[in-house]
Amino acid sequence: KAGVTQTPRYLIKTRGQQVTLSCSPISGHRSVSWYQQTPGQGLQFLFEYFSETQRNKGNFPGRFSGRQFSNSRSEMNVSTLELGDSALYLCASREGASDNSPLHFGNGTRLTVT
Amino acid sequence: ILNVEQSPQSLHVQEGDSTNFTCSFPSSNFYALHWYRWETAKSPEALFVMTLNGDEKKKGRISATLNTKEGYSYLYIKGSQPEDSATYLCVPRGPGDKIIFGKGTRLHILP
């Protein structure tokens, strides 16, 4: 089985622009979650989708949004980019919605905002 | 479960030595505890998922124990090797919770 695929791997944007990141989960996985990693902050939970419904949301401003499609692929959008949005964005998929299903991570998208 | 503490934050261990570190979490509303290993330039990788009090899991030289009554889990590494250098993250889960990672224990193996 192919792993979790995130595109693009690297992205450079300017303040005020918006960006869309994509995540294709492992085949058969219906849950996709998104995380932001910045130096010193660890992995911060953004949101989780299961079967096209947002299941949970972290403490991020409304500029961060996401969605999931019927094929379980997910996108994350950040509008009106700020310098502080520069980070590694990881997505993870898991087989079900059960809390004992392990997460399988993609390689991440490195976003730089200038 | 929103309060997760991992200690120590950073650890330097001589190659061949054994080590352990801790994940602490509120014991109420507990459902499962995940451990992940995150090596530099790679993605986090699941090590263990534990659910029962007293659970003990093992994968090669790495093992973990779980105490749900007092709210902690230990991760042990026996005979540390350079490839064990990584950040180890824990995620305690309650039903329907947000997925909140601890800040991790950064392990450095010294040759």
Written account of the structure:
The complex is a heterodimer of chains A (114) and B (111). By secondary structure, chain A is mainly beta. Chain A is 0% helix and 53% strand. Chain A has no helices and 11 strands. In chain A, strands 2, 4, 5, 6, 9, 10 and 11 form a 7-stranded mixed beta sheet that branches. A 4-stranded antiparallel beta sheet of chain A has the order 1-3-8-7, with no helix packed on it. Chain A is globular and about 35 Å long. Chain B is mainly β and 111 residues long. Chain B has no helices and 10 strands. Chain B has strands at 5-7, 10-14, 19-24, 32-38, 45-50, 56-59, 62-67, 72-77, 86-93, 105-110. In chain B, the strands form 2 sheets. Chain B has a 5-stranded antiparallel beta sheet, with no helix packed on it. In chain B, strands 2-10-9-4-5 form a 5-stranded mixed beta sheet, with no helix packed on it. The radius of gyration of chain B is 13 Å and the shape is globular. At the A-B interface, strand 5, strand 6 and strand 10 of A face strand 4, strand 5 and strand 9 of B.
- N-to-C SSE string of chain A, H for helix and E for strand: EEEEEEEEEEE
Compressed to H and E, one letter per element, the order of chain B equals EEEEEEEEEE
Which shape of chain A, going by the Cα principal axes? globular
Strand content of chain A: over 45%
What percentage of the residues of chain B does DSSP assign to strands (E)? over 45%
Mean pLDDT of chain B: 93
Largest sheet of chain A: 7 strands, mixed
Give the overall average pLDDT of chain A: 94
Uncertain residue segments of chain B: none
End-to-end CA span of chain A: 37 Å
Poorly predicted runs of chain A: none
Taking all Cα atoms into account, the compactness measure Rg of chain B is 13 Å
The greatest inter-chain interface is formed by: A-B, 23 and 25 residues
What is the total tally of β strands of chain B? Answer: 10
State the share of residues found in helices of chain B, binned by percent. Answer: under 10%
* Category by helix and strand content of chain B: mainly beta
**Tally of helical runs of chain B:** 0
| Overall outline of chain B | globular
Oligomeric status: heterodimer
Widest sheet of chain B: strand order? 1-3-8-7-6
> Helical region count of chain A?
0
